[in-house]
Amino acid sequence: MTTSRTQSVPGVSASPVKRSPLTEALLNRRLWLGVLGWTVALVIFFPIFWMVLTGFKTEAEAIADPSLIFSPTLESYAEVQSRAGYAKFAINSVVVAFGSTLLALLIAIPAAYSMAFLPTRRTKGTLLWMLSTKMLPPVGVLVPIYLLFRDVGLLDTRTGLIIVYTLMNLPIVVWMLYTFFKDMPKDILEAGRMDGAGTLQEVIYLLLPLTLPGIASTGLLSVILSWNEAFWSLNLTSSQAAPLTAYIASFSSPEGLFWAKLSAASTMAIAPILVFGWLTQKQMVRGLTFGAVK
Amino acid sequence: MATLELKQITKSFDDTHVIKGVDLEVNDREFVVFVGPSGCGKSTLMRMIAGLESATSGDILIDGARMNEVGPADRGLAMVFQSYALYPHMTVEDNMGFSMRLAGVPKEKRREKVLEAARILQLEPLLERKPKALSGGQRQRVAIGRAIVRNPSIFLFDEPLSNLDAALRVQMRIELARLHEELDATMIYVTHDQIEAMTMADKIVVLQGGEVEQVGSPMELYHHPRNRFVAGFIGSPKMNFIDVALVSTAAEGSTIKLPGGETRQVPIDGAGLAGGTALELGVRPEHLALDEQGPMEGRIQVLERLGGQTSLYVQMDDSLLTIMADGDVAYRVNDSVRFGFSADRAHLFDAEGLSLPRLHRHPLAGLRRQDNRAPTDAVDQ
After folding, report:
1. How far apart are CA B166 and CA A171, in angstroms?
2. What pLDDT does residue A1 have?
3. Which end of chain A is more exposed for a tag (fewer CB within 10 A), N or C?
4. DSSP line for B210-263
5. Which phi and psi (to 5°) does residue A200 adopt?
6. Using the beta-carbon criterion (under 8 Å), do A190 and B52 form an inter-chain contact?
7. What span, in angstroms and rounded, lies between the C-alpha atoms of A175 and A173?
8. Cβ distance B259 to B341 under 8 Å?
9. A204–chain B nearest CA distance, Å
10. Domain A85-249: which topology?
11. What is the pLDDT of residues B277-294, one digit of tens each?
12. 8 Å CB contact between A156 and A239
């Protein structure tokens, strides 16, 4: 950076054009913030990068001294694929993640509507209570839920996972929708009511279209959380309904850790959600900052 | 036909009593304005009429039928909101046609009615636009158009002009008055701006603290305010209040002693009050006049020259009085001035703030807005 460079403007004035100290300070500030941002981003990205690389190595290379130079091979991918069908797990993940998100939205939209537009004295308390359930370690309820699932035959079913994921994400989904709905001008809904809209029409014609960015980003977050969830999927599924998280875990087996295969499997597991997140990141950011500036 | 009647309406939120028993009758085709300072309950009262808020007790009757339990859409009303409350994701046409779409009116019919309203409001070129591409005045007109297509028996306006700039406000005021003529509908209008109330109303309802202070025509409120609050609220600049003492009463009026010691007779009935009773003399700034022989004296604190008129703020004893004087007065700040008042236009208020009755009713006090129309209207018919 040549921040202190001076120039003379020909023909106009012989005095050098200098940046004011304030501009200088701002530029410096931006430079350092940029460096900091990139550093953080690289630190976060590095494990993913290394995982993708390892997936293309042989098992021997994977445990050898870390090296960037190797001949890439698809060996691990082939082996992983032959040992356990990726597609089956991937389909389970898709069904469970999107199913639980849809179900959560279906329950959370009416809940958030009533809390945002027809609040009572206990609404704030209810919201806080819902959030507090997220602070409970899931292990604490593992045994009761396991027994419950066993008795009603929900073990190792997609339905069972959808139910658990819905319950797991519901507090966050309700909270997010509540804040988006809160930002919606009440007058518009009242105008709708004057125009003859019942509650359902009010929601379908006015509330949903106007808060769509918020609902979309809430849905995306719910999909991502469900996709990445490992604790419940490992404990409640075995073969039939196991999603990708269980698939990855199956590669850290009693016979030992197979880094290359594990990495290949992990890469395949995160690839869909990575692409999905990439495509929807605009929507995501727009939703998260929705209503911040009117 | 559309009449509205409120009987002993109250509204409480938890322990706060917002409306404390309001009785009101609104006649067919009347333009009624609810006016009062913020927090007086005027918007709440309107929202109860609209059905957006339920009344805690009392009856709301529209055309004689009780409406308390009827939903907002089924009362035959339409409301224009202060924020316009247009549907941001719909075009102007869809905004105006939304109520008909909900009611299942076929598309052609909808378009026909929307076009008709758009013609009245000169919105035709804007029908395809979304609200965010409209100016404030245009949004306001769309909001009114949305009300018109519903063909309501009563229009409700909740401070509709307060988001517009001053010039546009005057224009919309005129447009609304014209609309009232054209649509021949009953209209109820909420505002805190007494000029809007004075210029548009057939009947003004002055509210304060959830209670009706006075109901009457604009000229009635101006010339015969029921109490000190109404006297101070209606009229701009505000009425001056001067402490005086009653000297004697007679058939021709009451004699009062002004600050400074001089006495004057005003045509107000003070019967039943003892001599020496402390009263307040109410005189509007336009009824105070600079006069070298005048009975009162004060010192000019501030002088506002408006060109045609000059507002003088004059300190007399403890009170600051406003005097509307000629635009060319030669006084300066700190000058001492003498002034008088027109006794015919003065008001007297007792210790409770109630006005003492005036001996003569002002000739314009019963004037209705329609009476301002030139008689050619009658010839045309």
Report:
1. 48
2. 39
3. C
4. TEEEEEE-HHHHHHS-SBHHHHHHSSSSPPEEEEEEEEEEETTEEEEEPTTS-E
5. -65, -45
6. yes
7. 5
8. no
9. 12
10. MetI-like fold (1.10.3720)
11. 999 999 999 999 999 999
12. yes
Residues of B in contact with A191 (CB under 8 A): 79, 81, 85-87, 146
Q: Which of B48, B82, B87 to mutate to test the interface with A (most CBs of A within 10 A)?
A: B87
Query: How would you classify the pairing of strands B319-326 and B309-316?
Result: antiparallel
* Candidates A185, A193, A206; nearest CB to B73: A193
Mean pLDDT score, B152-167: 90
How far apart CA A248 and CA A265 sit, in angstroms, is 6
Tell me what percent of the residues of chain B surpass a pLDDT of 90: 72
Whole-angstrom Cα Rg for chain A: 26
Catalogue all structural domains in chain B, each as residue range(s) with its CATH number. Answer: 4-231 (3.40.50.300), 237-349 (2.40.50.140)
Is residue A184 less than 8 Å (CB to CB) from chain B? no
pLDDT in tens, B309-365: 999 999 998 899 999 999 888 899 999 999 999 999 999 999 999 999 999 888 888
pLDDT in tens, A121-153: 999 999 999 989 888 888 888 999 999 999 999
Query: What integer pLDDT is reported at residue B379 of this predicted model?
Result: 40
Q: B380 pLDDT exceeds 50?
A: no
Mutate: best of A194, A207, A294, partner B, most B CBs <10 A: A194
**ω into B237 cis (within 30 of 0):** yes
| 3-state secondary structure (DSSP) of residue A118 | coil
pLDDT of residue B1: 64
CB contact under 8 A, A195 and B98: yes
Q: How far is B82 from chain A (nearest CA, A)?
A: 9
Contact B324, B286 (CB under 8 A): yes
Domain chopping of chain A, boundaries: 85-249
Burial A133-153 (b: 16+ CB within 10 A, else e): eeeeeeeeeeeebeeebeeee
How far, in Å, CA of B140 to CA of B192, rounded?
Answer: 18
Kindly give, in sequence order, each residue whose CB lies less than 8 Å from that of residue A29, ignoring residues fewer than 6 positions away: none
User: Percentage of chain A surpassing pLDDT 90?
Assistant: 42
CA–CA distance, A4 with A22 (Å, rounded to integer) = 13
User: Under an 8 A CB cutoff, do A190 and B103 touch?
Assistant: no
- The alpha carbon of residue A2 is apart from the nearest alpha carbon of chain B, in Å, by 45
pLDDT in the model for residue B164: 85
Size of interface A-B (CB pairs under 8 A): 56
| pLDDT tens sequence across A62-78 | 777 777 777 788 888 88
pLDDT in tens, A196-213: 999 999 999 999 988 888
What is the reported pTM?
Answer: 0.79
